[in-house]
Structure to design on (269 residues):
């Protein structure tokens, strides 16, 4: 029998089965990809908006054969992707990139630090820790600009009930908010006080990740136990075109998740 060979650049079909509005400019696309794929938390796919182009988008959900991507509208491709409806079909290729090192965090306390849309690639980490009945604690430090900017609002309560220590903060005081205020990186020292032998995964705007690395270092954390996820504009997604290159590193192939002590040298932080 002839085997069908699919080139890494050839998209497969993804059928949108649901669209969940997260914020004014962000949706979660629920889809079925055929043939079915089994990505890992931290990896990404290239989503093709017909006649417009492709964007790298992380997996924000990967349970039971259903794939989810949370997309924020910033430009041409993401405007199309955030306007999709159930039944629409898009092109999809992947999974690409290095996942979060879940095994490094096994049976250890995990501090997850998320800023804004950076919560998206960390959501499957939370799911996996809950589903796997993880022995170590999971502490989620999640910051947003304002209360309406939090993603997965309903799930945040469910995660808390499932044993995740969820600590939210918004940048500045807001009339509808009685919780913490200040940048998410300010929550790191307190989380470290009670965490045992922790590992940390961090994703958010680049400046937030840079500050987070500094705070972990100042608090005495070994930076070989901290990982961040970098973002660069991508074309091929698998290390062939050099578009995402920073010095010797291809973000798509060597990352997007990197160990903090290694990324510092690459970015000159
Ligand atoms: C590994 C990886 C994972 C990602 N995961 C997600 C995700 O889960 N959800 C999500 O909404 N977005 C994610 N992104 C970002 C997403 O790829 C870009 O926002 C998207 O490609 C923008 O395309 P556009 O055509 O809509 O915007 P464009 O019209 O190309 O650009 C709009 C603006 O965004 C800037 N921009 C575009 N792409 C990037 C980029 N990759 N990094 C920094 N600035 C950029 C442009 O310079 C411009 O200012 C991820 C990016 C990478 C590399
Ligand atoms: S996007 Fe082509 S090498 Fe990274």
């Amino acid at each position: 029998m002839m085997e069908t060979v699919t080139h890494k650049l050839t998209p497969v079909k993804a059928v949108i089965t649901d669209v969940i509005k997260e914020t004014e400019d962000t949706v979660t696309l629920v889809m079925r990809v055929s043939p079915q794929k089994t990505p890992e938390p931290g990896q990404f796919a290239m989503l093709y908006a017909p006649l417009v182009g492709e964007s790298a988008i992380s997996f924000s959900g990967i349970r039971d054969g259903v794939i989810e991507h949370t997309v924020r509208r910033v430009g041409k491709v993401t405007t199309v992707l955030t306007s999709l409806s159930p039944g629409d079909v898009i092109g999809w290729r992947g999974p690409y990139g290095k996942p979060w090192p879940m095994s490094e965090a096994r049976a250890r306390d995990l501090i997850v630090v998320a800023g804004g849309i950076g919560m998206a690639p960390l959501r499957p980490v939370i799911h996996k820790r809950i589903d796997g009945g993880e022995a170590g604690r999971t502490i989620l430090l999640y910051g947003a600009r304002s209360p309406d900017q939090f993603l997965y609002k309903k799930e945040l309560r469910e995660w808390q009930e499932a044993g995740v220590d969820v600590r939210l903060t918004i940048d500045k005081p807001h009339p509808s908010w009685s919780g913490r205020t200040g940048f998410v990186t300010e929550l790191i020292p307190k989380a470290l006080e009670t965490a045992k032998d922790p590992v940390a995964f961090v994703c958010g705007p680049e400046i937030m990740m840079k500050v987070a690395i500094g705070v972990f270092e100042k608090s005495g954390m070994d930076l070989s136990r901290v990982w961040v996820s970098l973002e660069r504009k991508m074309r091929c997604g698998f290390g062939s075109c050099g578009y995402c290159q920073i010095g010797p590193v291809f973000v798509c192939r060597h990352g997007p998740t990197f160990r903090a002590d290694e990324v510092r040298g690459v970015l000159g932080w």
Remarks:
- Residues 12-96 form a domain with the Elongation Factor Tu (Ef-tu); domain 3 fold (CATH 2.40.30.10).
- The helical segments are 76-81, 102-105, 123-131, 153-161, 188-194, 206-218, 251-254, 260-267.
- Residues 1-5 have pLDDT under 50 and may be disordered.
